[in-house]
């Protein structure tokens, strides 16, 4: 790396090379910023894999008020209505912004947007690009824009390992590349590192997305919120590949059905049927499989012969597996897809730590509540990036900090954590299973090893899950199957999570016996 790190002192540092990080950097231009990406841009960004699209009330029969109503309904009482309203009202303008940046959204012959329908939306409001390649097309345009913007210093192959904090205030970023550790002094940091799917064995997310941003924030003392709400996509391709290829909800929006090995529709009698909210569909698929059935997405009639044209990416990987979606049902199963929880932020993306912002999936803005409405994720990342940038612009660089030398922790490795979370924090949960997760992760989370950061994030999710003794949205407890009468957001710090986990560990009779 030829860049002199000392020349970067005082600049805002954006951690993460997905849509949220790239857009924040672009919105800050022409202010000089540093963008850290641990991989080449686009290589390990969930944004690149987003098939569904970008939700926005741009249709003639639609309005932000209707979009908001659908978002609140999906969120199961835990959305921040004011925050959600502000975000969905900004979505139509964000579509235009992306189009001006060169995103080739699909259009009709008259030039209007070609809009798709997805689960729990009351209108066709999903803007797509190249059918099922929306995320890839948005990332292509954003990466090109970043590379031609001189105010953005891009450091690829650089991974943030810790945030340097004094008196609850950001002082710098401790990072590392293949040449060793490096420190960037700054009082302005944005975490835009994506989700947590890489903490689970079965996920549609890149394996490198395993909650590093949440670990950075937790070690810095930030408050995290709603961590227990993990969204399982009901239609991941049931094959050996990991990460699991996704079968976008838009296929069901086009009329595809969920069937079993006998050809029976097992969602037919449910409200909304195949287009019920994702958590309901995921649980139905999970239970049908648990009863001994195989589960399939049947697109033979709808979209039928048009499948390959409508969904070229999906058609290609299906055919590699020997399946022609126009003639064969596609095997599916639920897989971890999105995290509704994250770093608690206000309307400008500020966290509880001074000088620390978060944007995209790593942030908990209040938009998603207990269950994200389909295609609200890319929209949230693009919309909120502008407000984060505006907030950062209002904070001066401040005096140059004198940073003490610190050793970088080892690169994180989630491999020891994946089987633990997969077993105990799946689609259906109960106290015994969650407590086994806590007992297993607690030693890792307190230790200095490569599994520590991944274990800490997993432990915080488990503590939040064991505390929520109800079923709501993406969090379903078989021992508490009902939804509580009042919806209360959860919040948690690293210190609180470790204390709660320690109490559970020490109350376990087997642990007590070993300690005595």
From TrEMBL:
Protein's name according to its UniProt entry: L-aspartate oxidase
Cellular localization per UniProt: Cytoplasm
BP GO terms, sorted: 'de novo' NAD+ biosynthetic process from L-aspartate
A single Gene Ontology CC term: cytoplasm
One GO molecular-function entry: L-aspartate oxidase activity
EC number: 1.4.3.16
Main subcellular location: cytoplasm
Fumarate reductase/succinate dehydrogenase flavoprotein-like C-terminal domain segment(s): 456-483
InterPro entries: FAD-dep_OxRdtase_2_FAD-bd, FAD/NAD-bd_sf, Fum_R/Succ_DH_flav-like_C_sf, Fum_Rdtase/Succ_DH_flav-like_C, NadB, Succ_DH/fumarate_Rdtase_cat_sf
UniProt gene name: nadB_2
Superkingdom of source: Bacteria
Key words of the record: FAD, Flavoprotein, Oxidoreductase, Pyridine nucleotide biosynthesis
A Pfam family the protein falls into: Succ_DH_flav_C
Location of the FAD-dependent oxidoreductase 2 FAD-binding domain: 13-378
Oxidoreductase as UniProt keyword: yes
Cofactor requirement: FAD
Residues annotated as signal peptide: none
NAD found in the keyword field: no
Family (UniProt): Belongs to the FAD-dependent oxidoreductase 2 family. NadB subfamily.
Pathway: Cofactor biosynthesis; NAD(+) biosynthesis; iminoaspartate from L-aspartate (oxidase route): step 1/1
Catalyzed chemical reaction(s): L-aspartate + O2 = iminosuccinate + H2O2
Function per UniProt: Catalyzes the oxidation of L-aspartate to iminoaspartate.
